[in-house]
Amino acid sequence: MSRLTFQELLDAGVHFGHMKRKWNPKMAPYIFMEKNGIHIIDLYKTMIKIDEAAKVVSGIVRSGRKILFVATKKQAKEIVSEKVQAIGMPYVTERWPGGMLTNFPTIRKAVKKMKSIDEMIEKGTFDTLSKREKLQISRQRAKLEKNLGSIVDLVRLPAAVFVIDVQKEANAVREAKRLNIPVIAMVDTCCDPSNIDFVIPANDDASKSIELIMDTICNAVKEGMSERQLEREKERDAPVGNDSSERHNSTKMRARKPKKTNQANEQKNNKQK
């Protein structure tokens, strides 16, 4: 059964594409028709693609890896930051920092710098600085928080990147493809889907459309987290005694084998005598 119904997608305006003169021919398989000069997206294909993407997302999270959400456009920033914060995943809603994936160690150094400033404030060494130094460090801290505060917990490269508007986030998609990181994205009729591993054909301009798709993906993340938690509990509750007894029995059998060979040798010697 699909995660979203046709009516839910229709009510959210997921089917509205861009004007015909702005379309990308590579999106033709996902277009149902043209009406009043605007392309209409085939929602049945959108339903299938959402289910595929949600399955991939759930599997990644179940394995204990992270997904990076990228959405810097005005309509998506608040929606993404609110929903992704709730599930504890990293996200970028401000300007994409160049080299964030391809030059990840440098980005991590900037994050560590932000943490070191926080340690200075906690230990009280910040108060011993001059007024000018305090102002400079405070400004630096605010800038780092704005650009990198949402990826503090991203200690290694993400297992996948979820993008809203692949045209606007072209740099993020390019870096991900260079490192062979799978890209999951909402792709409108004006975009090129060839660099996207898991395409979700949908209206990426309407806030209702973005919110509906984000709810589905976030629910998939929660499913993956709960499945991972259940697997951990099963491993923790698994009986250890049976394994140790089996090992003990196997060592006994190994110890008995030489005795049989010794008895056989004695019988052969008696016959020869």
Break the fold down into its secondary structure elements and pairings:
Layout: H1 6-11, E1 16-19, E2 31-35, E3 38-41, H2 43-62, E4 67-70, H3 74-87, E5 91-92, H4 104-123, H5 131-148, E6 160-164, H6 170-178, E7 183-187, E8 198-201, H7 207-237, H8 241-272
Parallel strand pairs: 4-5, 4-6, 6-7, 7-8
Antiparallel strand pairs: 1-3, 2-3
Characterization of this structure:
The protein has helices at residues 6-11, 43-62, 74-87, 104-123, 131-148, 170-178, 207-237, 241-272, and strands spanning 16-19, 31-35, 38-41, 67-70, 91-92, 160-164, 183-187, 198-201. The chain is α/β, with parallel strands linked by helices and 273 residues long. It folds into 2 domains: 6-98 and 157-234, Rossmann fold (3-Layer(aba) Sandwich), CATH 3.40.50; 102-153, Helix hairpin bin (Helix Hairpins), CATH 1.10.287.610. The strands form 2 sheets. A 5-stranded parallel sheet has the order 5-4-6-7-8, with helices on both faces. It has a 3-stranded antiparallel sheet with strand order 1-3-2. Helix 2 packs parallel to helix 7 and helix 4 packs across helix 5. The longest helix is centred in the C-terminal third of the chain and has 32 residues, at 241-272. It is globular and about 65 Å long. The chain starts with 5 loop residues before the first helix and ends with a helix. The model has no long low-confidence stretch (mean pLDDT 86).
